[in-house]
Design brief:
The protein is an alpha+beta fold. The chain has a single domain (3-150), classed as Nucleoside Triphosphate Pyrophosphohydrolase (Alpha-Beta Complex), CATH 3.90.79. The chain contains three helices and seven strands. Strands 1, 2, 3, 4, 5, 6 and 7 form a seven-stranded mixed β-sheet that branches. The termini are far apart. The mean pLDDT is 94.
Amino acid sequence: MNLEKAHYVVATAIVIKYNKYLVIKRAPHEKVRPNYWTVPGGKIEKSDYINRKVDIGVHWYNIIEDVLRREVLEETGLKIKNIRYLTSLVFVRPDNIPTIVLSMYADYESGEIKLDKDHTDYAWVTLEEAKDYKLIEGIYEEIEMLDRKLKGEDVDEWSKSKNK
């Protein structure tokens, strides 16, 4: 394997319920951004597809969506639906692993919040309220982008907020 092409792939979801967005606080023991607020998500693993029957030829479809459903359920106890793409980003973790993040958004389907051991708090926030949380960099702008998109504005790509 060419290590120059090797990355973690992570999918995250901004969950929408009653025109508010779910943010969750990372636990102090987390390697990346402990005690920061973020949105649910997680890494895609080979086990997410390798033991599944292929959908066509040698291909598996909807892996990102399935991973998001699982991760949101594991981290928050919520079921989601209507998963859609928002944006993407790349960063290098403190342990030097390059990571690609596919930022998605989804509607709340059902369930009550029950946080896992890696998260210590949660809040349903408006865009304005999100400013009051110590969010991982870029998350506010993603929520802002989604908020504009849901209001019918033409939003193509992520850009740094001038309003924060």
